[in-house]
Amino acid sequence: MALEIKICGLSTNDSIDWARGAGAGTIGLVHFPRSPRHVDLDAMATLAAHARRAAPDLAVEPARVVALTVDADDDLLAAIMAAAAPDVLQLHGHEDLARARAIESRFGVPVLKALGIADAADVGVAREWSKAGIRLLLDAKPPKEATRPGGLGRTFDWSLLTALDHDRSFMLSGGLDPDNVAEAVRLLRPGGVDVSSGVETAPGIKSRNRIAAFVAAARAADEEGAAAAAGRQRKDIEA
Ligand SMILES: O=C(O)c1ccccc1N[C@@H]1O[C@H](COP(=O)(O)O)[C@@H](O)[C@H]1O
């Protein structure tokens, strides 16, 4: 299973092309008015269509579209589904397990539930969600004074997640950037990585060069990890 790379908080067609051209398979569109990356429903529809357009010039598959919401009610989720038909709904608020399940069943798409990680107890919570079959996005816990629950460019102690028996199921986020993503991938071998602030020059302004550098670094570290795992498997068979 190849590493899923998600570039989040895109708000222009050009930045979607940069992400797709660099080899990121998943893009995230933020619908949260307090975010510098907020896009309204009309913009979300246009951007989602652009992300899915055939792009022989980029020689890549259509991108998977994730719509990011924070404690959205059913009316808002229905409006997002009608406008942009996202492949995944990212839940970045206080949604509990029952709410996440209700959303999956009502809207017929998988959710990606964001959980803030600051200590071993948070990892225990993540374990419970994983057991319940919900895909997780493990992010830094926002400080109390934060005006939004994510997109803050904050990292956390990744070594906490080595206690998670994850089978490459979760996506890692929180303060990832082109310089640290390889280390995170080597340490954890997550199923995916997600970045927003780390590929920007200012909040909400994406950088083509930083997106390309992020994707290249993440991909190379994942391929290195895959080769090492294959080598270990060969040795086990020979032994
Ligand atoms: O990007 C935002 O402004 C945002 C607002 C509200 C909830 C989540 C948000 N962003 C998501 O947070 C993680 C980590 O972001 P970063 O790389 O540390 O900036 C990622 O999923 C963002 O899309």
TrEMBL record:
The keyword Isomerase applies. It holds the Pfam family PRAI. Residues 6-216 form the N-(5'phosphoribosyl) anthranilate isomerase (PRAI) domain. Its EC number is 5.3.1.24. InterPro entries: Aldolase_TIM (IPR013785), PRAI_dom (IPR001240), RibuloseP-bd_barrel (IPR011060), TrpF_fam (IPR044643). It comes from the Bacteria. Keywords: Amino-acid biosynthesis, Aromatic amino acid biosynthesis, Isomerase, Tryptophan biosynthesis. It catalyses: N-(5-phospho-beta-D-ribosyl)anthranilate = 1-(2-carboxyphenylamino)-1-deoxy-D-ribulose 5-phosphate. The keyword Metal-binding does not apply. One of its GO terms (molecular function) is phosphoribosylanthranilate isomerase activity. Transmembrane segments: none annotated. GO terms for biological process: L-tryptophan biosynthetic process. Pathway: Amino-acid biosynthesis; L-tryptophan biosynthesis; L-tryptophan from chorismate: step 3/5. Belongs to the TrpF family. This is N-(5'-phosphoribosyl)anthranilate isomerase. It comes from Methylobrevis pamukkalensis. The gene is trpF.
